[in-house]
Design goal:
This protein is largely without helices or strands. Helix content is 0%, strand content 0%. The chain has one domain.
């Protein structure tokens, strides 16, 4: 689905100076979850 395109997962705030992370899980899915990159955009 949408191969080769960025898919927005939401907007999240991170506190300056703290560590942030991204966790991709397969819980509550009907098939495969595939991610080969993540993009963080400062707004």
């Amino acid at each position: 689905m949408r191969g080769g395109q960025w898919v927005a997962l939401g907007t999240f705030q991170f506190t300056a100076g703290s560590a942030g992370s991204l966790l991709i899980r397969t819980e509550q899915t009907d098939g495969y979850v595939i991610a080969d990159a993540a993009r963080f955009v400062r707004s």
